[in-house]
Amino acid sequence: MPAIVVSRRRRSPAFVSACLLLAGVSLTACTSGPALPPPAEASPEPRAFLGGAPFPALTLTRLPGQAPPYLGAPSPRRELFAAPSLAGPGDGSRESPWTDLRGALRRLEPGDHLTLLPGVWTAAMHLDEHCRNGLPEAPIRLSAAPRSRLVPPEGARFGLFVERSFWAIDGIEVSPTGAGTVAVLVHDAQNVHLSRCFLHDGKANGLVIGPGARNVTVEQCEISGFQRGSADAHGVTILPATTGIRLENNHVHHNSGDSVQIVGPEQLATDPFDPRHLPLKPARDITVRGNRMHEDRENAVDIKTATDVEISQNRIWGYRPSSGSRFGEAVVVHYGATNVTVRENLVAGAHTGIVVDRGTLAGQPAAALPRQIVLERNYLRGDARADTAIFVIDSERVEVLHNVIEAYPTALVFLGRDGRNPRHVAVNNLAIDPSRLAFRASRLADVARFEHNVFALSGSELRCRVGRQTVPLRSVLAEGLLPATVIAGSVHVPGGDLDRIAGVSVIDRGAPIPGRNFLGAAPDIGIAEH
To answer: How many CB atoms lie within 10 A of CB 347?
Structure first.
């Protein structure tokens, strides 16, 4: 498909939208399938504990009532105000606020702080070439008072368009009503900070971080209810040619696509408007940490070709098979994703927990294999509708370490189609009640280190499948093919406390992993280190 190359020329929002549409990235809505009903009430948030504290911790960047960090800037140079539905132009003071939003934004200078006073703004906000950039030592600040809401007019491409650098935006509520209105687009800008924003109930994507965006932080925002019937509407979309993107402590849920999708160059190849036709580079240095993601139509996190990605300390729940997600996967890592870490997440109530898979695109050559993927110290908790906890297929060097898997019929799957040795690692994991299969593998040789794991099932015999043959797990252990692997009976996690595994000893029972510290004589099996 055609795509975008970063251009330093200034682009209007309409031009950027046209580029993205030509590139095949559906950022605007169209009639596609029956409308979904309004989002259902969220199911209860899952809870787990480690060391007496909630797991994961979800530590907030800052507490309610604290001033935003605003890139570490000093006090504002000027305090300015704007309010809707007032007579007269105003002078920007609290007593006589500006009423022309576009004009107010264009008047701001480095170090200024503009507060939007309560009311409904029926306009789109464009931070484009007509606005100034902030400075590293003097960013421009834009904040909204409670009960201040932005409702873009019908036909607007975006609610908030950010193409200026060193801007800090706090507390903005955007509620798009138009069929093709993206709530927020950050494009070709650096050092942008979005905090405590509420993006909700639109008919296109919520937040899009586009080519050329660098050092963008999104924290403590809620992004929900973006619905396009049976078509995708993602909470957050990160496009190629972006770097240094941080999504931290947000709440993303009930969207008709993914909570977070990282798009690869296999979907966006070159810019049709750039005569050089330079290829796009994958997104790089992406962190998704400490978020709550649940009950979207597709996945919590979908990572296509990108590099240096960390998905850590998130709570993820309520992902079921649907028209957009055949297996109800919570986290998907595919195409040519490289150096991806999925660590210390709580995944609950997902049909399939974590999938690593090459993937395919219609009419294109086979994608590169995902490689150097680490799945470490996650708690994957199934339920009566769960299927497989960790599913690895057509990839290279996937390390599955210190995870606790509970109540998934199949705990681990390692499959490959081309006969190569993918050099996977599965060490120090605890799988509780894998009633169907402890593991499945095309060949045991595909897992270079498959050792020091505990499989526990009460009242039944554990089974595994190697190639096309399903056999008792104890027979594979008897052949010495899974060193130091333990079969246990009744094991459970009392009260969801991962520090108090009951029914089997996990302390000092694991194998050392190069580059990872542990307490005691040897690593513990599972998440906790005692």
So the answer is: 29
Cβ contacts of residue 361 below 8 Å, gap of 6+? 266, 267, 367
Q: How far apart are CA 200 and CA 400, in angstroms?
A: 36
Helix (H) or strand (E) holding 37: none
Helix (H, G, I), strand (E, B) or coil at 360: coil
d(CA 36, CA 202): 12
Residue 33: pLDDT band with limits 50, 70, 90: very low
As given in the structure block, the two tokens for residue 126 are 């464009």
One-letter amino acid of 90: G
Burial class (CB in 10 A: 0-12, 13-18, 19+), 94: exposed
Q: Which of 295, 229, 226, 301 is nearest to 263 (CA)?
A: 301
Q: Return d(Cα 25, Cα 205) in angstroms, integer.
A: 11
Confidence of residue 508 (pLDDT cuts 50, 70, 90): very high
- Taking the C-alpha atoms of residue 175 and residue 192, their distance in angstroms, rounded to an integer, is 21
What confidence score (pLDDT) does residue 60 get?
73
pTM of the model: 0.92
Q: Is the pLDDT of residue 366 over 70?
A: no
- Tokens 């306009």 correspond to 123
Secondary structure letter of residue 410 according to DSSP? E
Residue 120 zone, left/alpha/beta (φ > 0; ψ -120 to 50; rest): beta
Distance CA 514, CA 530 (A): 19
Q: How far is CA 393 from CA 39, 185, 390, 432, 530, in A?
A: 33, 34, 10, 22, 33
